[in-house]
Design brief:
With about 280 residues, this protein is an alpha+beta fold. It is built from 9 helices and 13 strands.
Length: about 280
C-alpha cells in the first residue's frame, strides 16, 4: 500500500508520520508540493500518488486547491476538500458548529468597517478579532475598548486582500489561562492536552510559546470533541475548546493539525495513530 505525504515545509511531524506509516507496513513517501505541476484540462487517474494522500501543507490555499485537483484525478485525500474548506475558514467553521448546535463563543460578522463598532457594542468589550483564514494566532487581536478596535480596523483597511476588510468578531471568553487541544484521527482521540498561554501573551498557541500538559478528557469533553469533528466531516483534525462559565466552547477546528507540542506532553505516538487511520482509509 502506497501512501504519499504532501508537505510544503518539512517538519518533525511529517518525518514522524512517514516513519510510523512505514512501521505499519506502508510504502510512505514524502513529497514536496511546491514543485508539482498539473494539467487540469483533462482528467486521468494520478497513479503516482498511490492509494491515499495525507495532506500536510501549511498554506491553506495550496492545501485547498491541491486537494481539489487530486480528488478530481481520482486520488483519495485525507482530509477531503470539503473538510479542508470548512476548517480553513473560521466563518464557515462557526456556521457549521452553530448549525450542529455545538457550543461556541458568541461570534458576529461585519461585512464592512462601517458596522464593526456596532457589532462590538452588541457583544460588549473586550472583543477578539480574527482573520477568516490564518493559523498560529497571527493577526488575532483583542480590542478592550472602541478606540483600540478602530485602530485595529484602520490597520486592516490598509491591507490589500479584500477579505481582510470583512470582520470576524468573537466574545472574549472568561476562561483559565489555557485552552484544550484534541488531536482526532477518525473515531479516536489520538491526544488531548491543555495549552497554557505564555506569561507575556493571552494566546495559547504553541507556535507563540504556549506550553502543553496532558489531559484525560471527561465524558462531556469527549462528546463535544467528537461532535465538532463529525460536524465538519471528520478525519485528522485538531479540535480546540475553552472552559467557560457555561461549560466547554469549541472555538476552532484545524484541518492540518500540528501535534509536536501535544506529543511532548503525552505518551504514545500520535503520528502512529494518525498513520493507522490514514492506512485504514486507503484499505476501505
Amino acid at each position: 500500500m502506497k501512501l504519499t505525504i504532501l508537505f510544503d515545509r518539512l517538519r518533525w511531524e511529517e518525518k514522524a508520520l512517514q516513519k510510523e506509516a512505514q512501521a505499519l507496513g506502508a510504502n510512505a513517501a514524502l513529497v514536496d508540493a511546491k514543485p508539482l505541476v498539473f494539467e487540469i484540462s483533462r482528467v486521468r487517474r494520478a497513479r503516482e500518488f498511490g492509494d491515499v494522500v495525507l495532506q500536510r501543507c501549511i498554506s491553506f490555499y495550496r492545501t485547498l486547491y491541491l486537494t481539489r485537483i487530486l480528488e478530481n484525478l481520482g486520488v483519495s485525500v485525507v482530509n477531503p476538500y470539503l473538510v479542508t474548506e470548512s476548517c480553513g475558514n473560521k466563518l464557515l467553521t462557526t456556521l457549521i458548529l452553530a448549525k450542529a448546535k455545538i457550543p461556541t463563543p458568541r461570534t458576529m460578522i461585519s461585512l464592512s468597517s462601517d458596522t464593526v463598532a456596532e457589532s462590538a457594542q452588541k457583544m460588549g468589550f473586550p472583543v477578539v478579532l480574527k482573520p477568516f483564514v490564518g493559523s498560529w494566532g497571527r493577526m488575532v487581536s483583542i480590542a478592550r475598548d472602541k478606540e483600540a478596535l478602530l485602530s485595529i480596523v484602520e490597520l486592516r483597511e490598509e491591507l490589500q486582500n479584500p477579505i481582510e476588510h470583512m470582520y470576524y468578531l468573537q466574545e472574549f471568553v472568561k476562561r483559565p489561562p489555557r485552552d484544550v487541544r484534541a488531536v482526532v484521527a477518525g473515531d479516536e482521540i489520538a491526544a488531548c492536552v491543555y495549552r497554557y498561554a505564555p506569561e507575556d501573551d493571552w494566546r495559547t498557541n504553541v507556535a507563540r510559546g504556549g506550553l502543553t500538559k496532558a489531559l484525560k478528557p471527561n465524558k462531556e469533553l469527549r462528546e463535544i470533541i467528537f461532535r465538532a469533528a463529525d460536524a465538519v466531516g471528520g478525519g485528522v483534525l485538531g479540535v480546540d475548546a475553552m472552559e467557560s462559565e457555561e461549560g466547554y466552547l469549541v472555538h476552532e477546528v484545524n484541518n492540518t493539525v500540528e501535534f509536536a507540542g501535544a506529543q511532548a506532553a503525552t505518551s504514545g505516538s500520535i503520528a502512529r495513530k494518525i498513520a493507522a487511520y490514514v492506512i485504514s482509509r486507503a484499505r476501505k
